[in-house]
Amino acid sequence: MSNRIILASKSKVRKKILDSNNIPNKVEPSNVDEDMVKKALIKENATPEIISKNLAELKANKISQKKIDEIVLGADSVIDLDGELISKPKNRTEAFLILKKLNGKKHFLISSACISKNGSMIWNHTDKATLTMKNFNDNELELYLSKISDENLYAYNVYQIEGEGKKLFSEIKGDEDTIMGLPIKQIKQYLREI
């Protein structure tokens, strides 16, 4: 077993969080069909927390089955607006509609992390942050989106909390790493224990 973990995600943000916390890692995306899984779980009335946790576990387990004795980290983040699951935008039109939906409202950003070994989950954690968005008119939302690169828009959902996105909110309660997609404090604590 190597002393590095395998990140079952192509998220540059999550890789950056691991690197900045000096956690040796290698990226191996799971390529799980998230939309299909989300639709199935929504049909079963799963909560956003359960959807986030199940996706993180599915990603970690999928890679972990192929990597004997390796530690694999899977992660997933979702937005919960009054019980409605909001996924990452696929294009700028969707991004604008998501911002309009969140406009002036409080929502939760839920991030789950799962560590698997030999195809089974050995640890998981789900964290939640509460964000309250200011009120903006359509022109202000379009101006905000025009300042965000495609790469950042699709990587960070519709807001990059450590950049331009912070200006969107009147109140943020929760851990910034959770909002960025990886509850790193709890992951580090678990990795120290093992």
General description of the model:
The protein is α/β, with parallel strands linked by helices. The protein has one domain: Alpha-Beta Complex (Maf protein), CATH 3.90.950. Helix content is 40%, strand content 26%. It has helices spanning 12-20, 34-43, 48-64, 92-102, 138-146, 150-155, 176-180, 184-193, and strands at residues 5-7, 25-27, 71-81, 84-86, 106-117, 120-133, 169-173. Strands 1, 2, 3, 4, 5, 6 and 7 form a seven-stranded mixed sheet that branches. A hairpin with a 2-residue loop joins strand 5 and strand 6. Helix 4 (92-102) packs across helix 5. The longest helix has 17 residues, at 48-64. It is globular.
Give a concise summary.
With 194 residues, the chain is α/β, with parallel strands linked by helices. 40% of the residues lie in helices and 26% in strands. It has a single domain, classed as Alpha-Beta Complex (Maf protein).
**Low confidence ranges:** none
Sheet having the most strands: 7 strands, mixed
* Architecture per CATH nomenclature, i.e. the level-2 architecture: Alpha-Beta Complex
List the total number of helices.
8
Distance between the termini: 13 Å
CATH class: Alpha Beta
Counting structural domains, the number is 1
Radius of gyration: 17 Å
CATH fold annotation: Maf protein
Choose one word for the global shape.
globular
* Overall pLDDT confidence: 91
Tell me the series of helices and strands, N- to C-terminal.
EHEHHEEHEEHHEHH
Strand content: 25-35%
Q: Which structural category do the helix and sheet elements fall into?
A: alpha/beta
Total count of strands: 7
- Helix percent reads 25-40%
